[in-house]
Every structure is written in structure tokens, then in C-alpha cells.
Write a structure and sequence with these properties.
479 residues, alpha+beta, PmbA/TldD fold, 8-stranded mixed β-sheet, 18 strands, Metalloprtase-TldD/E_C
Length: 479
């Protein structure tokens, strides 16, 4: 791939600022429904993206044809497009030469996982569900990239990932088992299947609660939705520059329990060690003990804000902007004496549940849509298990709620009553591998392989849950 990048740069010629990213992504997926594997697919693609700035104009293009003829055609089309575009006075220039801060996380067994390895995990999930109907997938992927520009920056990297996301179902109720990791050995289908089956059985005969405001314990899948929306709409440098973000650097906008970081190179990080502009990735704290500290910038939005790039550039980022794709909530203190509340409750959330006098345990959120980006008011549904908590104990399964809530308000000073260490990493649902689940609309021109978002969110206890109206069954239909 390094050779392809150098070939493209040589074809561009002198007098033009140019950058080239060559990426290879290999995805393999085993999908099952009705407790049988029905689809086993694999795909490997090499793509080349060129961006150049010539005569004050900027254009980009891409191809999957890596022959000399195909690369020459890419250069020709991109230069022709540049001549037709208006001047770009805000061009921020190319990334200067800089070494990588680390290589990121790589596991050979995950990258080379066989169909049998994925099928074994599906088999274990189905067996552990104890005869309940099951459906879901197990996927593995690896990505490698090479970047080079005419300013002398040249970097390479690779990453691997595995995820399993599945449900067990009985009449009227679903239970969820979900896990993502950089290591295949960490995904245990039997553990996930047992948890999903327990949640499904415990969700039978759910009752309807009246609309109102409830204290909640959000398990990791639900917290992941909060983080994805905060990242996309709140800490997005372009949104901030255009005054569409709630973020106010230096202000205490969150509870002091909240620290949000993006760290691709850390032990829990997934992704390439550099961004789409060749800037090396590094650990960035967006919120520290409740205080908003940073915004995600690429070179363009950083120049507009008088700041420095944070290494969050994305392909096609001119449209949507830069945002942290691997943001996580720093875990709270470990419980001195672990609380056991049965298999229905994530072990990481058990201590939080034990402290609730009356509230709800929420497994997952879905179909979330942003109503007001500035205040980040979101509407959506609960999913895959909701239970009433009374005096620190799970008492009754509850029908799904529709909610409307400002996410920053739910994590505002005084709103967070506790948080815990996560017991597992949580993959996103209904999206290509490595891509955050769509909260409303994806940035056009964004390459799924370029985005990485499998954060390990910690369960959170908050005293705010939005006003709700109506109730819904396990498939999201009005009850």
C-alpha cells in the first residue's frame, strides 16, 4: 500500500499539494436467525483516496482500481475536478511530517479468524439460550492503511476487531447479548447467550408504567448511544464553529463524575493510529471531571477556530466535520464488595441498581433521533429489556418507553448519581463495522471503513429520565 501511495504522488507531479490514503479492509460476517446460521460472507476491498490543492482550488477523488491505468485515471479526474471548483481560501495546508505516537492495537488471531471460529461462537450462543429463538451475528474485520503527502508525511497502521451482537427471544420479549473487542479470545458466545436468555425470560409479562420522569440505571448499550450523539453533535469542531453545538470549552457542563476521552492507542482503543489527513492519533480528553475541555478538529476546522488539529479528520469531513469516533466514559471506582443481583443485571451495573429506591434499569436505546442539535434533545425508544427497580431490587419487567431528553442535561452537574467500571465493550447496532450507529443522518461522502466506534461505556445512574408517553412492545410497536 505504501508503494501505491508513492505512485499516486508521483503521478500528481510538482506544484500541487496532494495527499493519498490507501486503505485495505477485510470484513467477514456470520449471521444467524431462528437459531440457524443462514449467511456467511466475506469481503475485502482496497481503496485509494486522493485530495489535492492546485491553483487555489481543492478537489478529492477515490478509486478501487489500483492498476497504473486506474491510478492515472484517478489523478486525471481529480485534477479536472479542481479546475471546475471555486477557489478555496480556507485551505489549511497539508499535515507536516510527524511520527506516530503508537502502533495501536493488533491481534493476528482476530484478523485471520476463520468461519469456523465465528460459527463456534454462534453455536455456543444458541446452546446457552436454552431453546429460545435466537438471531444475530458475529463478525471479524481488519483494516490496514498507508498515508503519504507531498509535504513529506508518511505513515502506516493496522487494526483488527471482533464483535458479536445477538438476541434471545420468547413471546413478547427480547434479551440482548453484545460484545466487541480487539481480541477474538475475549468473545464468549456462551456467556452472551446465557445473559440474553436470562434477560428475555425476565422480560416476560411486562407491565405498563405511566408517563413521567424516572431515575434510571443505563447499562452499557444505552450509554453507548449517549456517547455517539455527544460525539457527533456536541464535540464536533465544525458544529462548534457554526454555533450548532452545546459545547462550551472551560465550562462545567457535566457532573463531576463525567470524564470523556478518545484514545485510539489505549488498551481499549480500536482504529488506525492516524487520521484521514495523516495526523497521528493521541489521547484527547473532551470532558475532565465535568468540565468541557476540547473539541474534535481536523486541519480545516482547527484553522477556523484558531486551534490545532486533534487528529480526528474523516474522509468527506468537509461536509459533516470531525468528531471523536472512539470516545469513552472513564470508569468509576471499583466496588469494594461486588453486588450480585442475578444474571439480568450487568455485573458492572449491579451496585448502581442496589442504590436506587425507585427507578428503571434500561438495557438499550434505539431509533434515537436528534430533535434539536444545539441542546441535543433526542427522542427514541428503550429496547431489549426495561425493569422497575424498587428499594434496590429488580421487581417487575416494564414495557418499552418512548423518551425525549437533552443528553447533556441527563449528565449535567448533580444529575449523575453513580457510574461503574464497564464489564465489556459494546459494539454498535445496525451499522457497518466500525461505524457509529446512525442517530439521524450520516455525513455524506464518509467511508465506513474510516470510522471507528466501539467504545467501552460504563453503566451510569442518573436521576433524570425524560418525560415519556405511551408504551411499546419488544418490537417497537405501540402497545
Amino acid at each position: 500500500m505504501e508503494d501505491i501511495a508513492r505512485r499516486v504522488l508521483s503521478m500528481v507531479g510538482p506544484g500541487v499539494e496532494a495527499e493519498v490514503f490507501v486503505g485495505h479492509t477485510a470484513l467477514a460476517l456470520t449471521r444467524f436467525a431462528n437459531s440457524f446460521i443462514h449467511q456467511n460472507v466475506a469481503d475485502a476491498t482496497t481503496s485509494v483516496r486522493l485530495r489535492l490543492h492546485a491553483d487555489g482550488r481543492t478537489a478529492s477523488g477515490s478509486t478501487t482500481v489500483t492498476t497504473d491505468e486506474g491510478l492515472a485515471g484517478l489523478v486525471r479526474r481529480t485534477r479536472e475536478a479542481a479546475r471546475l471548483l471555486p477557489p478555496d481560501p480556507a485551505w489549511p495546508g497539508l499535515a507536516p511530517p510527524a511520527p506516530l505516537a503508537g502502533e495501536g492495537n493488533w491481534d493476528e488471531a482476530t484478523a485471520q479468524a476463520s468461519p469456523d471460529a465465528r460459527a463456534d461462537r454462534v453455536h455456543a450462543f444458541v446452546d446457552a439460550a436454552g431453546g429460545l429463538e435466537t438471531a444475530g451475528y458475529c463478525r471479524t474485520m481488519y483494516a490496514a492503511g498507508a498515508f503519504a503527502n507531498s509535504a513529506g508525511q508518511s505513515v502506516t497502521g493496522r487494526t483488527a476487531e471482533v464483535a458479536m451482537d445477538a438476541i434471545a427471544r420468547i413471546e413478547g420479549a427480547d434479551g440482548l447479548g453484545r460484545l466487541a473487542s480487539g481480541r477474538l479470545s475475549e468473545v464468549d458466545g456462551a456467556v452472551l447467550g446465557a445473559r440474553a436468555a436470562a434477560k428475555a425470560r425476565a422480560s416476560a409479562d411486562a407491565v405498563e408504567l405511566p408517563p413521567g420522569r424516572y431515575e434510571v440505571v443505563l447499562e452499557a448499550p444505552a450509554v453507548a448511544d449517549l456517547l455517539q450523539n455527544l460525539a457527533l453533535y456536541g464535540f464536533n469542531g465544525k458544529a462548534y464553529n457554526e454555533r450548532r453545538s452545546f459545547a462550551e470549552p472551560g465550562a462545567e457542563q457535566f457532573d463531576r463524575a463525567i470524564t470523556l476521552v478518545d484514545d485510539t492507542l489505549g488498551a481499549a482503543g480500536l482504529g488506525l493510529p492516524f487520521d484521514a489527513e495523516g495526523t497521528p492519533k493521541r489521547r484527547v480528553a473532551f470532558v475532565s471531571s465535568g468540565v468541557t475541555e476540547s473539541l474534535a478538529h481536523d486541519r480545516r476546522t482547527a484553522a477556523e477556530a484558531g486551534a490545532e488539529t486533534t487528529g480526528h479528520a474523516l474522509p468527506g469531513g468537509n461536509t459533516f466535520g470531525a468528531f471523536p469516533a472512539s470516545m469513552r466514559l472513564e470508569p468509576g471506582p471499583a466496588s469494594a464488595s461486588p453486588t450480585e443481583l442475578g444474571v439480568v443485571v450487568d455485573p458492572a451495573a449491579a451496585a448502581l441498581v442496589a442504590g436506587v429506591e425507585r427507578g428503571l434499569l434500561v438495557t438499550d436505546l434505539w431509533y434515537t433521533r436528534v430533535l434539536d442539535p444545539k441542546s441535543l434533545v433526542v427522542t427514541g425508544l428503550t429496547r431489549n429489556g426495561v425493569w422497575l427497580i424498587e428499594n434496590g431490587e429488580i421487581t417487575t419487567p416494564v414495557r418499552n418507553f418512548r423518551f425525549t431528553q437533552s443528553y447533556p442535561q441527563a449528565l449535567a452537574p448533580g444529575a449523575v448519581l453513580g457510574w461503574a467500571r464497564p464489564s465489556r465493550r459494546c459494539p454498535t447496532v445496525g451499522a457497518p463495522p466500525g461505524v457509529p450507529r446512525r442517530p439521524s443522518a450520516w455525513p455524506r461522502g464518509t467511508s465506513p471503513a474510516a470510522l471507528r466506534a466501539d467504545p467501552p461505556p460504563a453503566p451510569v445512574r442518573s436521576k433524570l429520565l425524560p418525560a415519556t408517553w405511551g408504551s411499546f412492545d419488544h418490537r417497537g410497536r405501540r402497545a
